[in-house]
């Protein structure tokens, strides 16, 4: 869903309007990845 929003913004308005949505998508993915890794490693150490 988010990738479609990025593509739609890019096609309609150009790179300047697609960039904030793309950056937000990347940040959310990175935060989820780091959160899951932290949760998994805490479970193994306990």
UniProtKB/TrEMBL annotation:
Lineage: unclassified sequences, metagenomes, ecological metagenomes
Name this protein carries in UniProt: Sugar ABC transporter permease
Residues spanning the membrane: 20-40
Keywords (A to Z) from UniProt: Membrane, Transmembrane, Transmembrane helix
UniProt keyword annotation of Membrane present: yes
Record carries keyword Transmembrane helix: yes
